[in-house]
Amino acid sequence: MEVRDKAKRIWTRIKNWKTVRDWHIWKLKLVDARLYFVSMIVGLLTGLVAVPYHYLLYYLLHVRGEFYASRPAWYWHVPLFLLFWGILVFVSWMVKKMPLIGGGGIPQTRGVINGRITYRHPFLELASKFTGGILAVSAGLSLGREGPSVQIGSYVGNLVSRWTHVLQGERKQLLAAGAGAGIAAAFSAPLASSLIVIESIERFDAPKTAITTLLAGVVAGAVASLVFTVNPYHLIQVAEPAFAFFIQMKYFLILAVIISVCGKIYSSIMIAFKRAYAQADTPGHVKLFYLMLVAYTITLMQVNLTGGGEQFLLGQARGGSTDVAWVAAVMLLHFGFSVFSESSGLPGGNFIPTLVTGGLLGQVVGLLGVRYGIIQHENVSYVMLISMSAFLVAIERTPLTAIVLITEITGHFEVFYPSVVVGGLTYYFTELLQMKPFNVILYEDMIHASGFEEEKRYTLSVEIMTDSYLDGKLVDELLLPERCLIINVQRDGKNLVPQGTRLIPGDQVQIEMDSQDIEKLYEPLVSMANIY
């Protein structure tokens, strides 16, 4: 009799648990719908901030270009030089006050999503990143708009997560959605925006993250398309060369080898100079004086090569110079200028300078192909687009993002297949060359700084998804990595004692671990709570 009563109580407990679990699964669907709606709000707000950022950069660089094209009198250059130098000093001061606004923004965004960084004053930092990025690029430095756009989006995602009081586990998804929306606003490429979050920032393909990022990217991309009705990349005319399959494969193989070797040199020099610049004893304003001197000299020679060099690249792709030596010299000049600009640590990304270097490298290879009768002159832009994609693969190690981005922003699907071939070969060769992604190196340098080493323990928040490994498990039965401990389980806004709690979908679980282990354990722990 006692055994029967005990079995009955156990069965009743199991039925009750299943009822609670089913209720939470149904409720979780409503919570997901709310998250997707909020992610679209994040995309809209990011677009309303990042698109004006892009527009102001475009406008100021256009005004700057027209001014220098008018050939002003010599006495105007002295006050202008001092003004631009003063701008750089001011932006450098802002970065010292708020270190997180420096650089591109992708490593910082990844740090926030991983939990290694906290935006303590997100609105102030957003405004500073916005202002600093515009001033640094408008002064002529070779920096891109995409990195700051990513970080601006993450700031927006952070603010919206606070305003809407979303669950702890959903905050990183809104941060990722904002970051993707930033890329979509910068390039009007919503599909590539979700891929870059998965490949470079979130580095984990949870379905929720992919969906929220894509929704936010579509909304932000729509805002961008309303302002920038004409995409300048669409004006590039592309003609696919008509040569035999084996000749084509041989040409693509040579192109991939050249890009891989040049990418290795590019990345190594960029990182070495960046570290050397930071360790130099020269006062900051003196280093910025020399940087501005280089920028102003290049401005007087070729104004479109400054401000990232995107306008110069577009001009070359639409029928620029055919002198191989001149294009190669300009490419090297732009590369050296980009190295100094990136090393300064001022707000600005490295995607645009990377695309410019890759495009000009492709033009050199294309013009050499014309010289030796492999391709025709009208095919050079075709090689340039492939090279842009492959060079981005070599530096950032994000093949899906690079291939889709170039195809999406140019609208030329004829470069998709060759970009896959050359990009795949480049990825393999860079593996042989033991190249690390550029933004991963920057991220590692950032987290190994003294400020991060002081933090001994870190708490990771994960959300339990239906049918994941942790779904239905007792906390007491879980075997977690060494020095990892579940310190709290939040369900329906209430904190539960972990011991004796059986996890169900929608639970927000907080796992404490050593800070230095987060990069190694982040994906394994999150994968236990998510489904692929």
Automatic annotation (TrEMBL):
Coiled coil: none annotated. Residues 447-527 form the RCK C-terminal domain. Gene3D superfamilies: Clc chloride channel, Regulator of K+ conductance, C-terminal domain. This is Chloride transporter, ClC family. PROSITE patterns: RCK_C (PS51202). GO terms for cellular component: plasma membrane. It is found in: Membrane. Keywords: Chloride, Ion transport, Membrane, Transmembrane, Transmembrane helix, Transport. The chain crosses the membrane at residues 35-61, 73-95, 174-198, 210-230, 251-273, 285-303, 324-340, 352-370, 382-406, 412-430. The keyword Transferase does not apply.
